[in-house]
UniProtKB/TrEMBL annotation, chain B:
<keyword id="KW-0274">FAD</keyword>
<protein>
    <submittedName>
        <fullName>Isovaleryl-CoA dehydrogenase</fullName>
    </submittedName>
</protein>
<dbReference type="InterPro" id="IPR036250">
    <property type="entry name" value="AcylCo_DH-like_C"/>
</dbReference>
<dbReference type="Pfam" id="PF02770">
    <property type="entry name" value="Acyl-CoA_dh_M"/>
</dbReference>
<feature type="domain" description="Acyl-CoA oxidase/dehydrogenase middle">
    <location>
        <begin position="134"/>
        <end position="210"/>
    </location>
</feature>
<dbReference type="Pfam" id="PF02771">
    <property type="entry name" value="Acyl-CoA_dh_N"/>
</dbReference>
<keyword id="KW-0285">Flavoprotein</keyword>
<dbReference type="InterPro" id="IPR013786">
    <property type="entry name" value="AcylCoA_DH/ox_N"/>
</dbReference>
<dbReference type="Pfam" id="PF00441">
    <property type="entry name" value="Acyl-CoA_dh_1"/>
</dbReference>
<feature type="domain" description="Acyl-CoA dehydrogenase/oxidase C-terminal">
    <location>
        <begin position="229"/>
        <end position="366"/>
    </location>
</feature>
<dbReference type="InterPro" id="IPR037069">
    <property type="entry name" value="AcylCoA_DH/ox_N_sf"/>
</dbReference>
<dbReference type="InterPro" id="IPR009100">
    <property type="entry name" value="AcylCoA_DH/oxidase_NM_dom_sf"/>
</dbReference>
<dbReference type="InterPro" id="IPR006091">
    <property type="entry name" value="Acyl-CoA_Oxase/DH_mid-dom"/>
</dbReference>
<dbReference type="InterPro" id="IPR046373">
    <property type="entry name" value="Acyl-CoA_Oxase/DH_mid-dom_sf"/>
</dbReference>
<feature type="domain" description="Acyl-CoA dehydrogenase/oxidase N-terminal">
    <location>
        <begin position="6"/>
        <end position="120"/>
    </location>
</feature>
<comment type="similarity">
    <text>Belongs to the acyl-CoA dehydrogenase family.</text>
</comment>
<keyword id="KW-0560">Oxidoreductase</keyword>
Length: 394, 372
C-alpha cells in the first residue's frame, strides 16, 4: 500500500469513527462493566456499548487483520496500526475484549481446518461466543505438560474426565479450548490434544476461586464424563503441545504488554505526597525509585516496539516473548509497589467511596498474578537459559 | 522510529565488527598499557579509522565527513566497547566535532572539521571540574581581555586531554557558558596526564591566566544550545559503548560458565547462574532499545532527544555495571586475575558509567524534567 493509499485510509477511518463511535464509548474505562467481553449471556452495560460492538463487528474491525471471510477486515499490520491510532486519538474504547480474539483466534487461523475456522472465527469476531482456556491443572502448573485430564477414545468422540484450575472467567464462558491427554504411553509432551467444547455440555462445572484481591476472575473447572466430538480436535491428535506453546507465546506477549494507559507514576506520587520547596517529591528515596522505574518503562516500551518490528521484518521473536513476558510483568509489579508506596495510608482503603472500593489495592494485588499466569517468571528465565543462552542442562 | 537497523547500518556494523576485532582488540589495549605508551592510543589506528570514514561519521560532507549520523556512530562505539578500543573517537569525532558543528563560525568549521575528519587533529573537550559530572556547576571563567579573553580555572576528567593537538575549553562568560579553542602549549596551560583505572587516558588541566584571541571563541559567548547537543550526543555514544562493553562481558561470561566444570558438571548448568544470566540477557535487550531509541531520536531532531539520551545513559550505566559485576562473580577466582579480560571490562565500564553523568545523575535529571 502506497503512502497516498494509507493517507486515504486514515482519512476515511477518521470520518467513519467520528460518525459511528458513540460519545459514551470515548470516555476512559473506569470499572469492570465498561469492558465488553461478549458471549451468549453478556449483559451490556449500556446501549452505546452494544451499538459500538455491532458497528465495529460489521466493519470487521473487532479483528482488523483477520480475513474478511472470518469476520475480519483483512487489514495489513500497518493499516491496523493506523486504525488503532485513530481510535486512540478520540479515546475510543476497545469494542470487544476476548480470549477468542487474543488467544484462540490466532491458533485456529494457523492450525484449524476450514470447517473449524468457518464455524468459530466469525462468532468470535462478532462477540457472540465467549471462550475460556483450559490449560493449568492442580498438578500441572509450571510443569504444564504433566497435565492429566483424560480423554478416552470412543470412536467418533472422546469422554473427558479431569479438572482444570485458574480457568479465567470459566463461569462466564460459552466454550472452552482445552488441553487433554489422549495418550500416556510416551513422553509427557506427546499425547496432549487440543480440543474445543461447549461449556453447557453435561458434566462441565465451573466454580469461581476467591482471590486476595477479593475478586474471582479464575475458576476451578471440573469435567465428569464430558462428551467431546472428534471434529472438535484442532490439529493432530496427540500433537497438541505445539499448538499449546504457540498460544502461550501469544498470551505472554499480551501479559507482558501490561497497562500503558495509566497516569505516570510521578504524577500519582506528586498528588499524594506533594513537592518540597525545590519542587522535588517530598520523599527523596521514593523519587529516585520512581525515576528509575519510569526510565525502565520507556526502554521496555521501545523493546516491545523493536521486537514487534523485528518479527514483522521476518526475524522470529521465538523465545524473546519469554523475555518480554518476564520483564514486563516484573516491571508492572514494581510500578504497583511504587504506587502503593506513593498512596500510603490512602492506598490501603478497601471499602470506601474515596478509594472506589479499593481500586488501587485490588489492582496491586492483581499484578501479583502477572508473574505466575502464562508461565512463572522462573519458567521464563528457564526458557531464556535453554533456548537463547543455550546453557547446559537448562 | 527506526528501531531495526537498515541495510547500510547492518553493513557498517559488520565492517566495524571486523575492523575493531582485528585492529583494536583487548590485546591492543593490553599492549598500550604494558608498554606505557605515551599517547595511550595508537595514532596510526586513528588514521586508519579516519580513512574508513569513522572520524568524520558525524561531520557534514562539505567538511570532509561522511555524515552518517549518531545512530551509525553508536554502531561504531558499540564495537569499540566490545573490544575496549582506545581511540579519540569520543573526544574528537563526537564531542569536539559536535561543538564545532553546532556553534562554530564558518571559518572555524572550515578550519577544524576537515582536520578532524581526516584524522590529522586530535581534540579534547575540557568540561567537567569536580569529582562528579556537573555541567551546571562550571566555575572556569573567561573574562574579556583586550580583543580576546583570559581563562582561569581547573578541569578534570578531560578525555584524551594529554594527547590533544587542540583543546576546547568550556568557560563562563558574562553571557553564559561558552567554548574556547585553546592551544595546549599556550602560556598558563598545565596538563597532567592521568592514566585511569581502565588504562585509557584522561587529563587534569589547569588554566592560569591563559590569554586567547577573540576568534578562539567558538561561535557565540552563550553556547548553551551547542552544550546540550554535545552532551546528548556524548551521552548517547557512551551509552552505545557501554552496550558493547556490557554485551561482551556478558557473552564471554556465558561462554565461560559453559566450559568451567565443578562437581563434575559445567557451572552453567546450575539454575542459580542460569536465572541471573537470563535476567541479564533481558536487561541488555531493554538497554539496546534505549540506545537505539535515543540515537534515532537525536538523528531525527526529535525535541525530546536530549531527554532520551540522558535516559539511555542512565539505563546503560546500571545495566553494564550489572553485566560487569555478574561477569566477575561468575568467573570466580580467575575473574580476579589480570590474565582474564573480564577484569578489564569491569574497569572500563566503571569509567564509562561515570563519564557525562552516572545513572543516579540522569535519574535526577529525569525527575527534574518532569517536575518531581
Amino acid at each position: 500500500m502506497s503512502k497516498t493509499d494509507l493517507d486515504t485510509f486514515r482519512a476515511d477511518t477518521r470520518v467513519w469513527l467520528e460518525e459511528n463511535c458513540p460519545e459514551e464509548m470515548r470516555t476512559p474505562i473506569t470499572g469492570d462493566t465498561d469492558v465488553c467481553w461478549g458471549g451468549r449471556n453478556f449483559e451490556f452495560s449500556s446501549d452505546a456499548q452494544k451499538v459500538w460492538l455491532e458497528r465495529m463487528a460489521a466493519k470487521g474491525w473487532t479483528v482488523p487483520t483477520w480475513p474478511t471471510e472470518y469476520g475480519g477486515a483483512g487489514l495489513t499490520r500497518v493499516e491496523e496500526k493506523v486504525l488503532l491510532g485513530e481510535m486512540r486519538r478520540i479515546g475510543a474504547r476497545s469494542p470487544l475484549t476476548s480470549f477468542g480474539i487474543w488467544m484462540l483466534g490466532p491458533a485456529l487461523l494457523k492450525f484449524g481446518n476450514d470447517e473449524q475456522k468457518a464455524e468459530h472465527l466469525p462468532k468470535i469476531a462478532r462477540g457472540e461466543i465467549r471462550w475460556c482456556q483450559g490449560y493449568s491443572e492442580p498438578n500441572a502448573g509450571s510443569d504444564l505438560a504433566a497435565l492429566a485430564t483424560k480423554a478416552e477414545d470412543k470412536g467418533d468422540h472422546w469422554i473427558v474426565n479431569g479438572q482444570k484450575v485458574w480457568t479465567s472467567y470459566a463461569d462466564k464462558a460459552d466454550w472452552i479450548f482445552c488441553l487433554v491427554r489422549t495418550d500416556n504411553t510416551q513422553g509427557k509432551h506427546y499425547g496432549i490434544s487440543f480440543v474445543l467444547f461447549d461449556m453447557e455440555t453435561p458434566g462441565v462445572e465451573a466454580r469461581p476461586i476467591k482471590l486476595i484481591s477479593g475478586r474471582s476472575p479464575f475458576c476451578e473447572t471440573f469435567f465428569e464424563d464430558v462428551k467431546v466430538l472428534k471434529k472438535n480436535l484442532v490439529g493432530e491428535e496427540n500433537k497438541g503441545w505445539t499448538i499449546a506453546k504457540y498460544l502461550l507465546t501469544h498470551e505472554r506477549e499480551g501479559i507482558g504488554a501490561g497497562n500503558s494507559s495509566m497516569r505516570p507514576l510521578h504524577e500519582i506520587a506528586a498528588m499524594s505526597l506533594g513537592l518540597d520547596d525545590a519542587d522535588r517529591l517530598s520523599d527523596p528515596m521514593l523519587r529516585a525509585k520512581i525515576a528509575e522505574a519510569e526510565i525502565d518503562e520507556w526502554a521496555f516500551g521501545l523493546t516491545m516496539s523493536r521486537k514487534l518490528a523485528e518479527s514483522k521484518a521476518g526475524q522470529s521473536m521465538g523465545a524473546d516473548s519469554s523475555m518480554l513476558k518476564y520483564y514486563g510483568t516484573e516491571l508492572n509489579k514494581r510500578k504497583f509497589e511504587l504506587m502503593m508506596d506513593s498512596a500510603g495510608h490512602d492506598g490501603l482503603e478497601w471499602e470506601s467511596e474515596r478509594s472506589k472500593d479499593g481500586k488501587l489495592a485490588r489492582g496491586w494485588l492483581r499484578t501479583k498474578a502477572n508473574s505466575i499466569e502464562g508461565g512463572t517468571s522462573e519458567i521464563q528465565l528457564n526458557i531464556i537459559s535453554k533456548h537463547i543462552l543455550q546453557l547446559p542442562g537448562a | 522510529m527506526a528501531l531495526v537497523l537498515n541495510e547500510d547500518e547492518v553493513m557498517l556494523r559488520d565492517t566495524a565488527e571486523g575492523f575493531f576485532a582485528d585492529k583494536a582488540s583487548v590485546k591492543a589495549l593490553r599492549k598500550l598499557r604494558d608498554e606505557r605508551d605515551e599517547t595511550g592510543f595508537d595514532r596510526a589506528l586513528w588514521s586508519e579509522m579516519a580513512d574508513m570514514g569513522f572520524a568524520g561519521i558525524a561531520i557534514g560532507e562539505d567538511h570532509g565527513g561522511v555524515d552518517m549520523g549518531f545512530q551509525a556512530a553508536g554502531l561504531l562505539a558499540e564495537q569499540m566497547g566490545r573490544n575496549l578500543t582506545a581511540s579519540p573517537f569520543l573526544s574528537t569525532a563526537i564531542l569536539a566535532a559536535t561543538v564545532l558543528r553546532e556553534a562554530g563560525s564558518d571559518d572555524q568549521k572550515n578550519t577544524w572539521l576537515p582536520k578532524i575528519a581526516s584524522g590529522e587533529t586530535v581534540m579534547a573537550v575540557a568540561l567537567d571540574e569536580g569529582p562528579k559530572h556537573n555541567p551546571a556547576g562550571i566555575e572556569t571563567t573567561a573574562e574579556k581581555s583586550g580583543n580576546g579573553f583570559r581563562l582561569n580555572g581547573s578541569k578534570a576528567m578531560v578525555v584524551d586531554g594529554h594527547a590533544a593537538d587542540q583543546l576546547i575549553v568550556a568557560a563562563k562568560t558574562d553571557d553564559g557558558l561558552a567554548f574556547f579553542l585553546v592551544d595546549p602549549k599556550a602560556k598558563g596551560v598545565e596538563i597532567e596526564r592521568t592514566i585511569m583505572v581502565d588504562a585509557h587516558n584522561s587529563a587534569r588541566i589547569d588554566l592560569d591566566n591563559v590569554e586567547v584571541d577573540g576568534d578562539a571563541l567558538i561561535g557565540d559567548s552563550n553556547a548553551e544550545a551547542a552544550l546540550h547537543k554535545m552532551l546528548a550526543a556524548g551521552r548517547g555514544i557512551v551509552a552505545a559503548e557501554l552496550l558493547g562493553a556490557g554485551g561482551e562481558a556478558f557473552r564471554s561470561t556465558v561462554e565461560y560458565i559453559k566450559e568451567r566444570k565443578q562437581f563434575g558438571v559445567a557451572v552453567g548448568s546450575f539454575q542459580a547462574l542460569q536465572h541471573r544470566s537470563s535476567h541479564l540477557y533481558s536487561e541488555l535487550e531493554i538497554a539496546r532499545s534505549a540506545v537505539l531509541g535515543a540515537l534515532t531520536a537525536l538523528d531525527a531532531g526529535d525535541p525530546k532527544a536530549d531527554r532520551y539520551c540522558s535516559m539511555a545513559k542512565s539505563k546503560l550505566g546500571d545495566v553494564a555495571k550489572l553485566a560487569a559485576l555478574e561477569g566477575v562473580q561468575m568467573h570466580g577466582g580467575v575473574g580476579m586475575t589480570d590474565e582474564y579480560d573480564i577484569g578489564l571490562f569491569l574497569k572500563r565500564i566503571r569509567v564509562l558509567q561515570e563519564l557525562l553523568g552516572d545513572a543516579a545523575y540522569h535519574q535526577n535529571e529525569h525527575a527534574k524534567a518532569h517536575s518531581f
